[in-house]
Amino acid sequence: MLDVKNIPLHGRRIIMIASDDSKLKQRKIDWSKIFISEEDVSFYKSLLNIKKDSSDSRSIIKKFKDKFHNEVKDGFAYYFKEKRLPFVICKIDDVINNFKFPPQHPKNGFVYACSDAEPDLYLPLSMFHSYMYQSKLSAFNELCSALGAKTCRVISVEENGKIITNNIEIDKIPSKLGLLSSKLTLKTTKKTNSESIVYLELPKPNKIKSYESLWLDSEPTWKSLQKIRLNNDLLKYTVDLNYTDEMGVDTKLAASINSIGGNIGGTFTGITKVMYRFEVEFWPKDQIL
Questions:
Q1: How many C-beta atoms lie closer than 10 Å to residue 239's C-beta?
Q2: Is the domain of 25 the same as that of 97?
Q3: Coil/strand/helix, residue 222
Q4: CA torsion, points 180, 181, 185, 191, in degrees to nearest 10?
Q5: Do 152 and 207 share a domain, yes or no?
Q6: Do 179 and 276 lie in a common domain?
Q7: How far apart are CA 116 and CA 27, in angstroms?
Q8: How many domains are contained in the chain?
Q9: Which top-rank group of organisms is this from (predicted)?
């Protein structure tokens, strides 16, 4: 049994479940998903029948490097050179008792990824970024609640490098941006002016408390907010929420895995890079029991 739990996190961020890893090497490439043009298919199909150490092989590899998609080079090179794959191959028994998976998972043939924020949770690549985005947003909601926030206003929103704040309608926020997605009871209200939108309102808490999450390490303004609020009677603070890090899970990785027959759990959607700026107003400490 492979002891995946004791592999350093950087070495197990991506795992593939396989009942027999030798079967992985025998899988056929889905040529239609890889090639730049269909006319290349018949020529490159012959590559698997050429001895990898022959002069023909070396010549073809050179041509391949000039012509092939960059994102699948590593996956293809594995067939020729038995190059180490960018993930750990393991069996269900290696991970089922040591890590968390979505319902109905893990499954043979699927590739999963984890993050620094939730290192023991593995997700199919196809849903990785949608889940992690919601996870970070929920952490922000919970931070505001723990510190006794009264209201939180959206000051600006940037999506894939474009400022979209002026295009936001308050009743569209949940569907457009996925903002309201947590276990908290949140309330959206109207647009207060041309520069801010009330994102959430929270009732007066019984107490304020420290909040712990590995997501705090990704946002300096969160740490600063918590420190100042706990040590002082902070009433208002501007804080950022960024989801811009692909964490190594990108279209190149997904294409490489597809090229060797791995299952990523559906259609891979690349990251939507989002940057929010919020103004958080807090309940005064002397009003909190």
A1: 21
A2: yes
A3: helix
A4: 0
A5: yes
A6: yes
A7: 31
A8: 2
A9: Bacteria
